[in-house]
Model the fold of this input.
Amino acid sequence: TFGTLGVTEDRFYHGQGFASLQDAARDLKHAWRALRRTPGFLVASVVTLALAMGATTGMFNVVNTVMLEPLPYPNSDRLVFVRGTAPGSDLPARFGLGNDFYLHYRDESKLLDGVFAFIDGSSTLRVGARVEPMVMTRPSNDMYATLGVQPRLGRLPVVADADDAVVISDRLWSTWFNRDPSIIGKWYFVSDSMKQVIGVMPPEFRFPDAETMLWVSTPIGLEQVTAGSLGGHVIGRMKDGVTQEQLATELTRISKAMPERFGSAGYGPLFERFQAQVVPMLDEMVGRTTRTSLLVLLGAVSVVLLIACANVANLFLVRGESRRRDLTVRRAIGASR
Done:
């Protein structure tokens, strides 16, 4: 009778809408009391899982930032590096292109929605008595339009600036100039001459990497072209709907006319074997080696997390085995599983 009454009462209780919440709260209270009675087990479990989850989360954040998140530019999937290759020649398997390629692609390509060239390196910045070497980039002035970025303060370089203007990073503005907005229009010694600060870029702009502190205005015309000078960087934005293969084919084809435009003396037999290569900007900036290394590390820490979970599960099994008699008694007097 008492057993039948208990079953009926249990069914009535579990039929109520709030029963699952009360069960969960009761289970949590019971679990917490049980864990407090075994502090060694509690500490071992929490520390094991915390270390494993911390390592996995940290590694995933790195992979997410470097590989998974899109570049901070509008329609960044259409941004590509343009390289060259000349199979069978003495040139490297893949080489950078010069200003002549940039000018020719800018004027002749029908599949590019923008293109720019740049070189990077380090030189000197002098502000008052403070003089330090600084990582800086010299891009052609159409870099900003091609990437689709605007300064947070000031303006962008124009042809009239020649090479006498600089745009600085948010980090440089903060560390050297204490975020003083009056810096716009002032002149400082940069690289080899006095240059005017005309703009400050937003914090997320870190081209080509986070170490770059300023960008020197660099108008590029025919007078800056040396035919056959390789080793620079050219980045383009493909028009909507254009594939990398289509762009590479077009650039290879129009490159054949460069000796006629710039003079054949500097090129030699280059264009007999020249082929343009188009690589997504994200792939080029991350690099295959870095990508592989990051994925291997992420896989390794994921395995560590699985091992940690298995170890904690084993601890629970051992703990449950030691409480077999207790649980049997509880079950015998009517406790549910």
In short: The chain has twelve helices and ten strands. The longest helix spans residues 288-322.
